[in-house]
Amino acid sequence: MKRRGITWFIKEGVLSNNPVLVQLLGLCSVLAVSTSLTNAVGMGVSATVVLICSNLLISLLRKFIPEQVRIAAYIVVISGFVTAVQLLIKAYLPAIDKSLGIFIPLIVVNCIVLARAEAFASKNGPLASALDGLFMGLGYTAALMAVALIRELFGSGSLFGISVFGEGYPGILMLTMPAGAFLCLASVVAAVRHFTSKRRGDK
Amino acid sequence: MKLLRVSPSPHMRSAKTTASVMRDVIIALSPALIWAVYVFGFRALTVTLLSVAACVGAEALFCYITKRRQTISDLSAVVTGLILAFNLPVTVPLWLPVIGGAFAIMVVKMLFGGIGKNFLNPALAARVFLFLSFPSFMAGSFAAPDAARGLSPFALSIGLDGVSSPTVLSSIESGVDKRVLVDMFYGNIGGCIGEVSKLCLLLGLLYLLVRRVITWHIPVTYLVSFFLLCFMFPRGDDEALSFALASLLSGGVMLGAVFMATDYATSPLTATGKLIYGVGCGGLTVFFRYFSSYPEGASFAILIMNTFVYYIDRWTQPRRFGGGKHAGK
Q1: B100: nearest CA in chain A?
Q2: In DSSP terms, which residues pair with B164 in a beta bridge?
Q3: Domain count for chain A
Q4: Which distant-in-sequence residues (6+ apart) come within 8 Å of A9 by Cβ?
Q5: A172 with B136: Cβ contact below 8 A
Q6: Which of A52, A56, B77, B116 is the 20 to 30 Å CA partner of A159?
Q7: What digits encode the pLDDT tens for the residues B57-91?
């Protein structure tokens, strides 16, 4: 196994291999819950917790899971953690549970979680897998928050539900609609691609 | 010394340039603009100028930032600005055409590669963007002609009380008076800036046809299929002919058929393709008017057909002369 420093995980998860902005995974949840920053943080943190836990457990079990049924085994592990997270949110943060609704249970089929299990946790040690889960989760949260920032700020004129532009701001309603989600996500992806490709020196 | 110029085909030359075509479109649009200023007052002119300025400014800015060749001299941004303004009610706050123009040029046109590469009509996409984003300014009631004339041309935003009235289109099912039909033809009704006078729009169409800027296919098939569908399936208690005429003369269908569905970049190239496209626009407009929650459907219809243009062009690709049955494919 290669030894990797923590900076490698940070760079890989948040920038050069960001699950949303570079791998374009898990877009369904990004498009749906990025209407407000509160939702984005709630969703991002839940997914990160699930990613860390499932990566850790799958990495520990990687020698025991038979090759043929690995996907099913991953899903069982993931859905166990998702259920736990969902129950915790229901108990302690009922408001977040209400606004995220179906998207918390849907983390089970979020392709980021499954992709990290398949691509990383099944081949690496537990510590590395947990770190990978953490920074992939943070990358997901960052992308989600970037999209939500644009949509909430210009769509409803507020941040975390607190009005920024005052009462008179009419709000660009389209940004809060699904069409606006696509526009904002595309702009964020384009911007990130633009800046990262410039730094690498290839146009 | 004169040298023989060697160049690859095509060798046909024409005096037509993008700028000359766009200049013709601007000339064709001007009767409707003059009428709008006459009927709605100078605020219509302010809104139009702001929209044009925003479009041209956005294009210049985009070219400057991305270090491209400046393309504003081809006048296409001016046309986009004019058509966008024609789709706005005269009562909109003055920042609205600026946002719309910037969206039309930056997002819909330039991000996809500039003139000729946009797959949606920029002005229409911007109109729908504004319509979905600011429904309180864009939908609902429009200024009545006489009341609008007194509006201040420079006030940033104005109250709608006392100037607005429901349009014919929103109450079309309860029947339309014959005299109102004449008013609708001349343009003495409430509505968006450029859409009210069907006479001026038809003058514009005539000019475009005479100058061979566009062919008859799209506007005629669009309007005829729209009229026939309304005539065959009338709504309300009125007689079918009167309903179909009122439908044809209300809303933005005429403006859409003449100036928006015929945009070069977003309409098919072949004659057959244009016929399919025109009928599609007409059918979808009727569909949206009848079954959607908004009174007007022309802009949605044209935008949806815009996305089909690539496929229509593929289907109707002409066969190469001398080629076999499948040679052109």
Answers
A1: A172
A2: B143
A3: 1
A4: A128, A131, A132, A134, A135
A5: no
A6: A52
A7: 999 999 998 888 888 888 999 999 999 999 998 88
Which residues lie below 8 Å from residue B266, measured CB to CB, with a gap of 6+? B118, B119, B120, B121, B306, B309
Nearest to B262 by CA among B24, B40, B60, B42: B24
Tell me the pLDDT of chain A (203 aa) as tens digits: 466 788 888 888 888 888 888 888 888 888 988 888 988 999 999 999 999 999 999 999 988 888 899 889 999 999 999 999 999 999 998 888 888 888 888 888 888 999 888 888 888 888 999 999 999 999 999 999 999 999 998 888 888 888 877 777 778 888 888 888 999 999 899 888 888 776 655 54
Best mutation target among B132, B156, B299 (most A Cβ atoms within 10 Å) is B132
Taking CB atoms and an 8 Å cutoff, what residues of chain B touch A171? 133
Kindly state whether residue A179 falls inside one of the protein's structural domains: yes
Take residue B12 and report the two structure tokens written for it. 């046909």
Beta bridge partners of A100: none
| A179–B132 C-beta distance less than 8 A | yes
* Tokens at B144, concatenated: 């009545």
The phi and psi torsions of A119 (rounded to 5 degrees) equal -85, -25
In B102-141, the residues whose Cβ lies within 8 Å of chain A are 107, 129, 132-137
The verdict on a CB contact (< 8 Å) between A170 and B132 is no
Residues 6+ apart with CB under 8 A from A127: none
CA neighbor of A137 nearest in space, from A112, A115, A117: A112
Interface predicted TM-score (ipTM) = 0.78
Give the structural domain span for A137: 14-200
With CA atoms as reference, the chain B residue closest to A172 would be B133
- Say which CATH architecture domain B18-315 belongs to: Orthogonal Bundle (1.10)
Residues A101 and A33: their CA atoms lie apart, in Å, by 10
Residue A8 lies in a domain: no
Does residue A124 form part of some domain?
Answer: yes
B135: which chain A residues are within 8 Å (Cβ-Cβ)? Answer: 173
Residue A193 counted as domain residue: yes
Residue in chain A lying closest to B137 (CA)? A170
Chain position carrying tokens 């400046």 = B70
